[in-house]
Structures are given as structure tokens and as C-alpha cells.
Amino acid sequence: MKVDNAIILAAGTSSRFAPLSYEKHKAMTVVKGEILIERQIQQLKAVGIPEIVVVTGYKAEQFEYLVSKYGIKLIHNQEYLTRNNNSSIWAAKEVLGNSYICSSDNYFAVNPFETEVYDAYYAAEYTSEYTDEWCMTEDENGYINSVTIGGSNAWYMLGHTFWSSEFSDQFLSILEKEYHEPETRDKLWEKIFMAHLDVLKMRMKKYASGIIYEFDTMDELRKFDSSYVTDTHSVILKKIAKDIGTTEDRIVHISALKGNGAEAIGFEFDDGQEHFRYLYKTEVLEKLD
Question: What is the pLDDT of residues 232-251, one digit of tens each?
């Protein structure tokens, strides 16, 4: 089937990517000299995908230049702070068809996109070691028949998906029925998919390791792009390094802190000797015992 478009989900706050995500949207991170979302748009255009839609929310204004630079379309998700990514799917319902559904923060070492796709699929990578990612199995016809959180010797969800128009119609039909139920609010669209595997038929598309990358934390980004070891590209971290008398490369093990809801309120980190907490809104830096 011929691909109609690509829908790039870019509404979330990426709170785990603290503190870079406080300063700019994670999709705007420069990785090995390229802005993440621009690299992905260029890969989609390189194979001739006719329409590219970006669903925005957090720091939406940072995406506006992409319209004139690449001719993409923007759709704003008004509910990005109060719902999970099912609201971005709902916001893009009018353009869903034979569609790639992509995350704005993925880095593809090799272009994975095609203009014609055989069937709906979720990209997958294999691991023999334990992972806390979402692991899948398939039935005798090659369709995903179970998804569990965590596992080993398994194929797990990583990267983009492709929705056929049939899959899109079926998913939207289910989402329309469940959208206003309180328990749906916090669900990833994948959770809704998991609950309806009997009717939402999707295959795995298996990729070798080293093709699809996702950086959830600064530490993970540093492993892939070593330029971030000595230069964090963060005004916040540069100031912290100066305040505690250290260098940026010694600020490690950064982990986000969340308030009562999903909103990040700061982060903790080590400097090789001591442990610290930084509260973002109040700019309070504390040494922990």
C-alpha cells in the first residue's frame, strides 16, 4: 500500500531528558551535528513521503520555522499537559490513513522509511539481556499477539510504526468510544493497542541493533554523541558546574524529579563525589546526604 503521510508526535514534555528539555524541546536536540526532528523530516522527504505532519504541544513555537523550511503541516494538541499521547493521535485523526506514526526524538542511523508498505507494523529490536521496554510476541500469521512490559530474549518496541488505513479506522473507532473515560486520559496509545490485539492487527518489523536510537536521558545521549560529555549545551548545567566548582563532564547520573503530577520539577545528579538536587522553577541547588 502507498504511504499517504507521516505524523510525527512532538507534543510531550520529555521530562526524563532534564535539564535539556527545560531549555528547548527534545526534538530540537542537536545530535552529531543535526537537529533530531530535521534529520527525520529529511529522511521522510528523501523517499518521497508526500505529506509530513508534526503534532505539537510543549514549546510549540519552536516548531514553527519547519513550515517554511520543509513545507510540513503543524497540528497543535491542546491537551498535551493533561493527557498522554493518545490525545496526539486524536488531534491528528483527520489526517490518519496509510500513515507513519513517528516519535520526534528518534535518531535513525539508516533511513527506515519507504513509500510503499506491506502491512501495519511496529518497529522492533531484539535483546538477549533484560530490558524494561515493551516486549512483543507474534502469532503463526506474524501478527503481534502479546505485549509485556519488561523481558529478555525478546523483540521490543523501538522507533516508528506504520498504520494502514484499516488499522487507523479501527483504532480511531476504539479511541472515540474510550476517549472520555477517565482511565484513558493517562494511557499511551500503545496501551490501547495492547488491550485490543484481537482486532488491531499489526506486525513487527524487525531491525538489527544500531539502526534506531532513542535517548531518554543525558547519560544515554552522551554514550552516542561524546561531544555532550565536556559540553552539555545546557545553560543550567554550565551554571551549576560553575557554582559547585566542577566541570560539565563530572555532572553525571542525571535523573528527573517529578511533582504530584507528571510535570518535572527538577533533577538530581552526582559530581563524582557528592549528590545534589536542583529544583528548576526556584533555581534552588541542594547538596544531599
Answer: 999 999 999 999 999 999 99
